[in-house]
Specification:
The chain is mostly beta strands. Helices cover 9% and strands 35% of the residues. It has one helix and ten strands, in the order αββββββββββ.
């Protein structure tokens, strides 16, 4: 008895079609998902800039910057313990922003932001799965030092990409 002879024809057809259902991205009405792009990562990144509370001046870029990029410490907090290593951070010196991946294994990513010798401040990013035909992890709320900077709409169709967060330590 060969392995293929022991499997019934309907099961072979189902097995042959399974990969197409798993790989494809379609909407409930049978069409392709608008904006469903496999090259867009499943996990979110967050972009932010650091500005002064009073003057709104950039703290890390420009001739009057109070700090240098090397004085910025961004660290994830896991299980109540601040990571000893800086988070993976991409610096965009043209747009004066920073970008980092969000840890989405829990419902929230807690991050400390420290400039120079100042006390670390807390950025709290709540995450959730956007339930649509192309599910993605999204930031649902961003809070810095207790102030809400961003809150996603409750209607999934209205959730857009999270813009640049303006952190004011």
């Amino acid at each position: 008895m060969s392995p293929l002879n022991s499997i019934k024809v309907p099961y072979l057809i189902i097995l042959a079609l399974c990969p197409f259902f798993i790989i494809s991205c379609s909407s409930p009405n049978g069409g392709k998902c608008p904006g469903c792009d496999a090259s867009i990562p499943f996990f979110p990144n967050v972009k932010f800039k650091l500005t002064d509370k009073q003057s709104n001046q950039d703290l890390l870029f420009g001739k009057d910057a109070k700090f240098t990029v090397s004085e910025l410490k961004i660290r994830h907090v896991e299980n109540g313990i601040v990571d000893s290593a800086n988070a993976q951070l991409t610096v965009d010196s043209v747009n004066h922003t920073f970008e980092m991946p969000v840890l989405y294994s829990n419902d929230a990513d807690t991050i400390t932001v420290q400039l120079g010798a100042a006390k670390p401040e807390v950025l709290y990013l709540s995450t959730g799965v956007l339930s649509s035909c192309c599910s993605k992890v999204v930031v649902t709320e961003a809070t810095f030092n207790g102030s809400i900077l961003y809150q996603a709409p409750t209607v999934p169709a209205k959730v857009s990409a999270l813009g640049v967060l303006n952190l004011q330590p």
